[in-house]
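User: Sequence in, structure out. Go.
Assistant: Echoing your sequence, followed by the structure tokens.
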Amino acid sequence: AVDLAFVLDGSTSINNADPGNFQLLKNFMINIVKSFKISSERTHVGLVLYSSFTQLKFNFDKYSDSASIVKAINTTDYPKGGTRTGEALKMAKSQLFGASMRSVPKVLIVLTDGRSSDKVEAPSKALKDEGVVIFAVGVGDQIDPSELNVMASDSKSDHVF
């Protein structure tokens, strides 16, 4: 069992390099979801979507089967706008991991082009201090590797892609 959260960058710059990048990220999330056993007793999945604004698309308790999560991801619209990764990390901490009472591994996958307009260091440290393992996945042609490294758990080579 695991609490698995995605923080999905929906900023305008995601699709600048390739208009298909946002859909590619959704497909990536779907493939990961399909590799887990989703149920109320097993893996729970949550999604925070962000650009200039941050939205909790669904929390860990909303869906208890893979098909419902896949549908929710597929129907997530591309918001465009700025890149407020720090705010999205704060929401993942308060609305997802902060609301989960389960003593299971906690994993966060951040999907971004890594050009946040706000600070990511403090919110990512706060998550890691609570035992959340963070993977940072860069997409596009403007990836900021230093930002991915700041967010990701140690060892960086295992948590930054």
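User: And one key feature?
Assistant: The chain has six helices and five strands.
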